[in-house]
Each structure stands twice: as structure tokens, then as C-alpha cells.
Design goal:
169 residues, elongated, 12 strands, six-stranded mixed β-sheet, Elongation Factor Tu (Ef-tu), domain 3
Amino acid sequence: MSAERERLVVGRISGVYGVKGFVRVFSDTEPREAIAGFPRLWVERAGAWELLEVEDGRAHGHGVVLKFRETADREAAHALIGCTLAVERVWLPPPEEGAFYWADLQGLKVETMDGTELGTIQGFMQTGANDVMVVKGDRERLVPWVRGRYVMDVDLEGGLVRVDWDPDF
């Protein structure tokens, strides 16, 4: 497995916060402030990954603010705007029974209960009520991630998610 496949994207740096080197982060973790609990994060800058040490972090408004040991001031923090944040897969606890990391589901084939192929999972969106799969095939479909109602079976090893979904919708 390549280094890129072992890293899971957990957020993006969207701005700076204050003058002491804090950055604003859009976190993909659940809960969003869980990103601050990692002692280190991989940061992709100009196509190269570097490991930075998390010195401080907390929820702030709709996002999170983080302070890296390597960002002593606002100027150093500003250089990180737009960077992707990732963790190593081995840093994560195994998902609970019946739960999945989104990264494990991306790229899986999606088909209806009668075998009609809808496409592959390209990503997920949080809507507040429930998460939604973004499935791309002949067109893009948004399928609510509701187990037992729309999502009927997940076979990670077989690379397949079966859904109870009208292909015309």
C-alpha cells in the first residue's frame, strides 16, 4: 500500500486565526473538533507531505482552530492556507461494528437490489438530517446514507454497496 493510500484526509486549512500562529480548519472528522486530538497531522503543501506537531486546538464557530508547533506567528500560519490535512490510517481506531470510515467506502460500486449499476461512490455530504452518498455513473445521484432504508448491504471486500433506490431518481 502506498503512503498516499495510508493517509486519510481529515480536513483543510481555510485561514488564519489571530497573530500567534493558529489556523482555521474545516474538519471532516466527527465530531469536528476530534481533529485537534491528533498529536500530529500530515499537511500537504505544494504537492509534498510534511508532518506537523499539533500544539493546541479547539472547536471555534463552525470549524476548528489549530496551532502547530511549527507555526510561531501569523505569517507562518498564512503559508498553510489551502493545505490539506491527513492522518495515517493506523492512527485511527477500528470502526465500531456496522460503522465505516467514509474513506473505506469511496470508490465502491453501487447497485440497486435488482443489480442495476448506479456508479461508484465519489464522496459524502453532511446534510444535518443524515449523510448523503455522492454516486457517479451515467449521471450523479445523491443517495441518503440510511442503513436499512436505502442502504441495504455493504460488502467492503467485494467492493459493493447495495441500495434500495430508483435508478431514475
